[in-house]
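Weekly sync, protein design subgroup
Attendees: M.S., D.O., the rotation student, P.L. (late)

Item 1: inverse folding check
M.S. brought a backbone from last month's batch and wanted to see whether the design step gives back something sensible before we order anything. D.O. pointed out we never logged the input encoding, so this time it goes straight into the notes. Structure tokens as presented (117 positions):
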């Protein structure tokens, strides 16, 4: 996977490719040393203009094929990242369920006046 850099590190780099997402209003600027920056483009219709800001790449909303074709990430890397995210979500869900279960236990214990031994 290519390395995303800060805007201050762009000076002196040679532009290799630009890829724009149709999904999330981001553009990836890729340099010949296999690094990139991401621009977020926000359209403001009232002012008939757009604001451009530097922001982290939203890899899962950019478009898998576009990122792969540009060489930013491979399909295998995307799958591994998705798996990590799913695992983290499952862990969070499990913790939330444990908290809810404990709250329900305490509520029922109070309701039926069950004494712990």
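Designed sequence read out in the meeting:
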């Amino acid at each position: 996977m290519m390395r995303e850099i800060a805007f201050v590190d762009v000076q002196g780099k040679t532009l290799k490719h630009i890829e724009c997402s149709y999904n999330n209003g981001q553009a990836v600027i890729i340099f010949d040393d296999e690094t990139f920056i991401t621009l977020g483009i926000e359209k403001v219709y009232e002012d008939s203009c757009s604001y451009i800001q530097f922001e982290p790449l939203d890899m899962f909303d950019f478009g898998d094929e576009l990122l792969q074709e540009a060489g930013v990430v491979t399909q295998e890397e995307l799958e591994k990242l998705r798996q990590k995210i799913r695992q983290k979500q499952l862990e969070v869900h499990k913790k939330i369920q444990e908290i809810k279960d404990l709250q329900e236990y305490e509520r029922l214990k109070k309701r039926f006046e069950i004494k712990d031994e």
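Discussion: The mean pLDDT is 88. The CA atoms of residues 18 and 29 lie 5 Å apart.
Action: P.L. to compare against the previous round before Friday.
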